Amino acid sequence: MKDFQMDCVNIETDVLIIGAGPSGMWTAKHLKELKPGLQVTVVDKAGADWGGLMTMSEGDFDAVTPEENIDEWVKDLVYYWDGLCDQELMETLFRASYDRLCEYEKLGCTYTRKEDGNFKGIPQRGLDNVKLCITKVKGTGGEDMRDSLNKEMRRLDIQRIGRIMVTELLQQDGHITGAVGFHVRTGQFYSFAAKAVVIACGRGGWKCSYGKNTSTGEGLLLAYQAGAELCNMEFAEVWNVPKLFSWEGQTVLLPLGAKFVNAKGESFMERYSPVLKGNTDPHYTTMAMAMETKAGRGPIYFDTSDLKEEDREFVQPAAGWQLLNHNKLKNIGIDFFRGTTEWQPQILSSFGGIVADAYGRTKVKGLYAVGRSRFLDAGVYIGGFDLSTTATTGYLAAEEIHQYLQQEGSAISTQPSKEDLETKRSLLSEQLQKTGVNGKEVLRKIQELVLPYNVSILKSEKSLNSALHELQQIQKDLLPEMGSGDAHYLMKCKEIEAIATVTEMFLKASLMRKETRGGHYREDYPQRDDQNWLGWIKIRQENGNMKLHLEPVPLKTYKHPVERYYQDNFQFPKKA
């Protein structure tokens, strides 16, 4: 076993980026383009070039092309998110989206174009304007994006260090000045001195899928403990997924004629949404799936039998992990594109994130948030949105950080005291060598309290309070007793600590929002309440306590009024 006291690595850099996914790479890439001599360091708890969850994606991308109207796209999201849309933020991001898509294409990624030369877009979720631009080769789009950005990292000679778990941000006089952490294999203690720190490591989650087992919320916890606000924590990404093997692409398949059916073979979404039917957000579908199962009409299947032959050829994966899964299904007698496969709801990650402006600035000086670590979505999801916003938020944050360092960089002192570093190193050393409760047991207990339908999908005050009580017992009795014994399992313990905090935020914010809106459904408050709840629930740490408050949507200063609600397309049961 390695001892922290014996191994210490100190690194000085201008900008420290925590997270080697697309948003972290876009930030690093553009910073080095703006100032080649800038010292930029990217760290990640996984391999330095793994590429984040982008690797598991289709590679499809939301972009407002020159012939389209940005205002119309923003209005679509105001409608889609039931009013919880930061209109100024989304306008800024959409304005940067087309250039980022073109840049991906220049880097070697391929997208389908129409005969007139414009990108081919597929309409999303029954919206009038929002479309995603689709990759030309199915199955490798995300891998191609990862490879193209990794090539840029090497070309720009950006320092990247893998297998580093960051455990705490350093501050002096209310200003972020770096971070500390450890190597998850060797146990070496790492200290980073930096003039700006970027959180780019994704959302919180519950390790319920091998495709989403890395998003555990440690970046959110770092920001929260440093004084930043979090938002949208009551919204969770509850996906509909195959019972056998993972899949991507229903965003494309549903508009082409695929549908969800119950055990009776009924296309049940018409019961809940006569207009949109199945061509909607997965969160509304999973609500319906839960209600169908509760009514005894489960299990639920995904039916592709009505796809046209030319569409089948277009969407079948040609390579990558999806081709692997497609072949696995065929080996057991299932053709994904010519029949039915059993599907189920599965909670994956939180939609909540760090509060930041369009350029990534948080309320903590020197701390920035990009990509999936920051709050954007309001509980429902558009295909291609994450790949678009990871690129745009990373690019725009680089612009702001560059300007910030030009104005204030020379005045920022980033040297932590040796005594402070020694204290932090000793604490981690103790945790590294501690034996105790197996972290996997603690994680399983948290999963068991949040996974049930009445907590993750069809919420109620009774079920949420029960889950919160269970969580508080876990936090009191089990979290402090977790043991590691080596650096790898210390990383797992740190992940579980973050998962517990994200879960607490999810439960408390879900209890606070006494209405149904977007992907948040309360059985005891099944109607939308615009008078009391047209606003964001924001969370901050105050004197060691978790404080929640509602911030109303500033309708008077926004360009577009809230006149339509996506939720009104659905006929879910109303309170008696």
Description:
Helix 1 runs parallel beside helix 4 (141-155), helix 1 (22-34) packs parallel to helix 11 and helix 2 (70-80) packs across helix 3. Helix content is 37%, strand content 18%. The protein has 17 helices and 22 strands. It has 576 residues and is an alpha/beta fold. It is globular, with a radius of gyration of 23 Å.
In short:
This protein has 17 helices and 22 strands. The chain is an alpha/beta fold and 576 residues long.
Average pLDDT rating: 92
Helical content band: 25-40%
Measure the end-to-end span. 61 Å
Shape: globular
Order of strands in the sheet with the most strands? 7-3-2-11-18
The number of helical runs is: 17
Q: What composes the largest sheet?
A: 5 strands, parallel
SS content category: alpha/beta
Q: Rounded to an integer, what's the Rg over CA atoms?
A: 23 Å
**Uncertain parts:** none
Tell me the fraction of residues in β-strands, as a range.
Answer: 15-25%
Total strands: the figure is 22
Q: Layout of helices and strands, plus pairs?
A:
Layout: E1 8-12, E2 15-18, H1 22-34, E3 40-44, E4 61-62, H2 70-80, H3 87-106, E5 121-123, E6 131-133, H4 141-155, E7 159-162, E8 164-172, E9 175-183, E10 189-193, E11 196-199, H5 218-226, E12 230-231, E13 236-242, H6 250-253, E14 259-261, H7 269-272, H8 282-294, E15 300-303, H9 309-315, H10 320-331, E16 340-350, E17 353-354, E18 367-369, H11 385-408, H12 418-433, E19 437-438, H13 439-450, H14 453-456, H15 461-477, E20 482-483, H16 487-512, H17 530-533, E21 535-542, E22 545-552
Helix pairs in contact: 1-4, 1-11, 2-3, 3-11, 5-16, 13-15, 13-16, 15-16
